[in-house]
Amino acid sequence: MNIVDLFYSASFLVQLIMLLLLLCSVVSWAIIIQRGLTLRKAKQQVDSFDNTFWSADDLNTLYNELNKKKARIHGTELIFYTGFKEFSRLYQINPNMPNAALEGATRAMRLSMNRELDNLDRYISLLGTIGSISPYVGLFGTVWGIMNSFIALGAVKQATLQMVAPGIAEALIATAIGLFTAIPAVIAYSRLSLRVGGIEQNYSNFTDELLAILQRQAVAIRK
Fold it and tell me: Residue 123 and residue 189: Cα distance in Å, rounded?
């Protein structure tokens, strides 16, 4: 008897649980692939703009270049764009208060960074949920299937291993599918979360570096 035969011979509830777990597995793998590609692209963008930023002769020129494609910028490009724009606006309003301009730029960059991180972290928490509940859902299917097997055995006068084995095997399939769903989801959740954390650190470092540059520029202009 193969797995397909065990599925068809299982009770309706156990079949439903198996299908639910398989659906969760498909969803988790879709998230793993999609988020993996998204995070790789985000890291490439960080590295690319980092080279562009440090090789730029003038921040105003870099800002003007980004302003031409502002609808398509993201990541550190967006953090730089919003921070530099807010700093320039506030500094022009009151050149005698550079600290206020720096605080405004900090707020603008933090907001942009949080929005970018929300986009990167999207659906990853669902992997953690799938990974944590799938074994228990599968175990519920197993318990239900074994319970039905023993109830059926109670209706016969003489029970044999040959009678009880198929029912138990059907039930254990649910646990196997639950583990098959949970293990990749848990591993991917940990790895993707670490990658998001690494990109968050890149964003935070860039924000601090840009603020330091803006502060030096503000001091130099006042002198």
Answer: 10
* Residue 75 region by backbone torsions, left for phi larger than 0, else alpha for psi between -120 and 50, else beta: left
- The answer to whether the beta carbons of residues 165 and 118 sit under 8 Å apart is no
Global confidence as pTM: 0.84
User: Domains of the chain: which residue ranges?
Assistant: 3-222
Q: How high does pLDDT run on average in the chain?
A: 87
Report which residue type is found at 70.
K
Q: What is the DSSP letter of 156?
A: S
Q: State the Cα angle at 120 between 119 and 123, rounded to 5°.
A: 85
Contact 61, 89 (CB under 8 A): no
* pLDDT number for residue 121: 93
Rounded-to-integer distance, Cα 136 and Cα 112, Å: 39
